[in-house]
Amino acid sequence: MAHMLAAVLHDFGDLRLEQVPVPDPDVDEVVVRIVSCGFCATDYKAIRGIRRNVAFPFTPGHEPAGVVAAVGRAVRGFRPGDEVICQPSGYCGTCRHCRQGNTHYCAEAFTTGGDGPPHVWPGAFAEFMRTRETCLFHKPAGISFDAAALTEPLSGAWKGLIQYSGMEVGDDVVILGTGGIGLLCVMVARAAGAGRLIAVDPSAQARANSLRLGATHAVDPTAGDLRDQVYAIVPAGPDLVLEAAGPIEAVRSMVGLLRRGTRWNVFGITTPERFELEGGLTHFLEARMDASFGTTPRAMERAIRLLEAGLVDPEQIVSHRFPLSQIQVAAETMGQSQRNKVIIRP
């Protein structure tokens, strides 16, 4: 039996490089040789124990691109040697949710190396990964593997901003938190024709990155009252506010930015924390709240179209690249404030 190198989490804080069997594909499955995989904050939270919904042993890594190594006998759309992008969220395709296009609600959903569904398959912090044919997309020839690996978070940015919050050309948009996912949101908003595009982040480096990648303004929330700073730029208030930061404080800050009719999206927070709304004020503001998690085939296709058209280049947010053999160094780098997107190359 052939073996491969994989990073396996045995307990919170106990990530080990191990030799494990190379997976074999079932009839409708594909085994992909991983070329590039993004290191997501949810991977880091699992490794450090910040999120606890993890069953051990667990191989993280849910933002991969690679090359087809083997296919099951029922697979028709892919063959060995094809360059592919992997969607981490698998689905049955026949339940009510799937048939309505909400595959991320599927009752039989699984994820490769991610979180959300109860069924978790080994992820892409490994030399090879097994998934279903329905989770694969052909990688455009002109797109690098590092850029292709970020299709999944790019698709989430498109889904949250465009599909769910209905961003329109000319909208004044505020994005709270401009780490990796926040910068992708900045780039999508710019490509979609945002008017004044305000990035909010306490990090000077993050604010500089935001301006470089399309924000018209960058605000330091520690430099004074955030509402005063934002309303000095958009006196009528923002049309859309999206939280891409993660901490509950960012959600509370977002609530403080609302005016009548503002659309707001709880996008970045994934941990079970609480915030409060004043009932009467919420009623009279008619601010429309959305949330967005995961991705769908439609969102993945849209993200690939953005890549092909050159409207968004996610490789611009990559700050570090590590081989799988240096996964511990990569995990330490994820905890540093100066890093941006980290890529693992098995």
In short:
This protein is α/β, with parallel strands linked by helices and 346 residues long. It has two domains: 3-153 and 294-345, Medium-chain alcohol dehydrogenases, catalytic domain (Quinone Oxidoreductase, Chain A, domain 1, Alpha-Beta Complex); 166-291, Rossmann fold (3-Layer(aba) Sandwich).
Mind explaining what this structure looks like?
The chain has 346 residues and is of the alpha/beta class. It has two domains: 203 residues, Quinone Oxidoreductase, Chain A, domain 1 (Alpha-Beta Complex); 126 residues, NAD(P)-binding Rossmann-like Domain (Rossmann fold). It is 28% helix and 26% strand. It has eleven helices and 18 strands. The strands form four sheets. Strands 3, 4, 5, 9, 10, 17 and 18 form a seven-stranded mixed beta sheet that branches. Strands 13-12-11-14-15-16 form a six-stranded parallel beta sheet, sandwiched between helices. The model has no long low-confidence stretch (mean pLDDT 95).
Given the structure, what is the number of helices? 11
Radius of gyration: 20 Å
* CATH superfamily label of the largest domain: Medium-chain alcohol dehydrogenases, catalytic domain
Q: State the total count of DSSP E strands.
A: 18
Q: What does the overall shape look like? A: globular
- The CATH architecture of the largest domain can be named as Alpha-Beta Complex
Classify the secondary structure makeup into a structural class. alpha/beta
List unreliable stretches of 5+ residues.
none
CATH topology of the largest domain: Quinone Oxidoreductase, Chain A, domain 1
Biggest β-sheet description: 7 strands, mixed
Terminal CA distance: 20 Å
